[in-house]
Fold each of these.
Amino acid sequence: MMTDQDVRWHRAQELLLENALDVATMAACLGQDEKRLEAMIGVKPTRKMPDSVAELMEQTFSKPKGWMDQADDGGITFDLFGG
C-alpha cells in the first residue's frame, strides 16, 4: 500500500511530465531550493514533502486543493487479505 509520501511523490512526477519540467526548473517555478526539492521528488527521495510544498505545487500548477494527496486509483484498494 502506498504511503501519503508515495502518493505525493507520484503526483510530483505527474506534474514534471505534464509540464515537461526537470526538478531544477520546477524548483525555480516554486521558488524552492533545487537540492531540497530534489531530495523530496528525485529518483531516490530522502526527505518528506511537507504540506506547504504540496500546497504550493497545487497552486502553482492549477490543481485542486488536496490533489497532491489523492492516489490515481480513486481510492480503490486491492487488498486481498483485508488488512
Note: The mean pLDDT is 89.
Amino acid sequence: MARKTIKRLETDLKNMEFLYKQELEENKRLRNLLEGKNVIAQSEYDLLLKDYEHMKDMRDNYKILYDNLRIRYDGLKDSTVINNQTIKNSRGAGRKAFDSSDVIKRIYELYIQGNSLKEIANTLNGSEIKTKRGGTWSKSSVRFILLNYKNVENEFIDEDTYNITVKLLNDRKKK
C-alpha cells in the first residue's frame, strides 16, 4: 500500500466530507421527490436513487480506508520522535535523528548556491559542526541530508527546496 503523509490524509478527509455533503444534497433531492416536489419521471428517480446508493457505498468504503490509515499513522506517530530522540521502525530498531534545522537549512543553501558535496563537508568541518554521531562530515553524509525527505516532513525545509536540490543532484551526477 502506498504511504500517505498527514497532509494527504487531511486532504482525503476533506474529500470525504465533500462526498458526505453531496450525499446530503442527494438525500434532500430524493426527499423532495418522495413528497411530490419537483416531480420527475420514474427513470430519472431510479437513476438518482442508484447514484445516491453508489455515493453512499463509496463514502462508507472510503471512511473504512481512512480510519485504517489513521490508526496506522497514530501508531507510528507515537514512536517517531524528533529532537534527537530515538526513532523506532516496525522492528523496534532505532537511530538518532539529526535535528539541527539551522545546519540542515545551511546545507541546502550551500548546495543550491553551487557548492559541491565535498566543499559543504569541508565548510561544516571547518565550523566544527559535528554529525549526529559526533563525527566529521563527508560527501556521503552531506548527500544523505540532501536526499532525506524527512527534512520536508519535519518542516526543516520546504518541498520546493527539496525538489530543486534533488534535481540539481541528478543533473550534476550526469556530468
Note: Residues 78-94 have pLDDT under 50 and may be disordered.
Amino acid sequence: MLDDAAARTWSRRGHTPITRVRGRSRRRLSVAALVCYKPGQRSRLVYRPAPDRRTDGRKSFAWTGYQDLVSVVHTQLGGPIVLVWDNLNTHLTAGMKQYIAARDWLTIYQLPACAPQLNPIEGIWPLIRRNLANTAFADPEHPIATIRQELRAIQYRSWLIDIAQAGTGLILTTSPFEPQ
C-alpha cells in the first residue's frame, strides 16, 4: 500500500530511453488531507495544498493550517468529528492541543507510532504517485496543478476512498453521536 508506483516506458531494443528536462526546480507542495466518513453518506476527501511560496519561510503546514482544515471539515460535515491521526509533530503542538480542548465537537484518537498502514490517507498518496509516473513537467507550476487535478478526481470517486480505508483493516461502525 505504501510502495512507490512502478512506472514503465518503452524504446527500441538496446536503446535506453532518455528524458530531457529543461531546468531544475526545488518547488515543493505540502498537502494536508482528511478522509471523512459519515454514516449514510459517501466518503469524502478534504485537502488543502500549501505551495512553497509562503512568505513566512515555512515549507510545511503549521498547526494553524491543520486547525483551519479541521474547521472546514466541521462546517462541511455539519456535526461532531472523531479525528484519528498520526503522530506528526505538528499535530502534537501546544497550540493544537489548546484548539482541541476548546472544541466539544472534536474528539481525537492518536494512531500508534510508526503505523502508517492504519491511516487511510496513506492509501491515497500511491494513487496520485501512480498517475504522476513518467510525467515530464513543463514548468514549476505544472506538478502543483497536476496534483490538485488528481486529488479532485479522487474526491469524485468515493469508492477509491473506501478502498483506502479497507486497506487499513479497520472497521467503521456507526457514529457514537448518532441515536441507535
Note: The radius of gyration is 19 Å.
Amino acid sequence: MPVAPPTAVVRPAPPVGAEPAPEPSRQGWLNRLRTGLKKTGSGIQAVFVNAQIDDELYEQLEEALLMADTGIPAAEHILQDLKDRVWRHSATTPQAVRALLVDAVAEVLKPLEKPLEIGRHTPTVIMVAGVNGAGKTTSIGKLTKHLANEGCTVLLAAADTFRAAAREQLAIWADRNLVEIVSQAGGDPSAVAFDAVNAGKARGKDVVLVDTAGRLPTQLHLMDELKKIKRVIGKADTDAAGGMAAPHEVLLVIDGNTGQNALAQVKAFDDALGLTGLVVTKLDGTAKGGVLCAIARWGEERARTKPGTAPVPVYFIGVGEKLEDLETFDAREFAQALVG
C-alpha cells in the first residue's frame, strides 16, 4: 500500500530573549563552562542592569568585550552586527538586546565549530603542539579518553624527548586510558614519531596521537624541530588512496588565560605547521574567553586573503583537570557562557 508522505511539523521560533534548552547530556557541561567564564559573563551582564538602549550601552559593551580579550576587530564587528539585529528586531529591552548579543557572538564563533573526523585514514595521525604550560600533555590524555569513549583504539607517541617528566606524564595517561605508548628515553623525537606511526599501522590502531615538546614560537630552532617531526611523519605514512600524507591533523593546544597572546601563538604555529585544529584549555575561572572571537575573525580574514584556506576550528575546550572536563566546542553554548 502507498505510504502517505510525512507531515511537516512547524514549530514557532522562540521569542527574542528566550534560549533553547540544551540537550540533557550537555547541561552539566554548559553549567561548568558558565562557571569557568563567570568573570567575563558577570562583566557583560552588569552592562545590561537598568540599561537604556542608547550609545552609552554600546560603548560600555565595547569596553566589556575588549576586557574579555576579543580584540578590537572582533569587538567592532560584534557591536555593528548587534546594532543591526536590534534595529531589525525592534528590540527595546535590555534582556532582548542581551539575547541578540548572544546571537551575534555565536555567529562570529560559528566558523570555529567543526567535529574532529576519525576514520578517513587508518590510522588517523594527530600531531599535537603547544607552548610549555598550556596543558598539552594533559589534553592529549583527555583526548585519548574522549576517543576511547567513541570506540577508537589509540596509540600514544611520546615524542617530547627533551623533558623526562613529559614522557612519564604521558605514560600515566596511557595507563589510565589502557592504551599503548611508544616511548624512548633521550631519543630523537622524529624517530619516536616515525616508529609510532609504523606501529600504529602494524597494530591496526584507529588513531596515533603524537606529543611534541612544548616551545615558544620565537624559539626558531625548536620550531624547525617541529617541522622536521611533521616531515618525518609524512614519510612514515602516505595515504596513497586518499592522496594525503600524515599527519592528518595538526592541533595546537592554547591556554585560555593568555588572551591575545593565544592569537599570536595560533598565527605563528600556523605559519610553521599549517594548523588544522585547536584545543583551548583552562577555561576555569580566570580565563576571559573572548580571544576565541579574535581567532575566528583572524580565520575569516585569512580565508579571504589566502584562497584555499579556512578558519582553524576549535575541536575541544577544557574547563578543568578531570577527564570529563574536555568537550567538543559548540559556538552557541560558548556564546551563552561568554555573555553570561
Note: The radius of gyration is 22 Å.
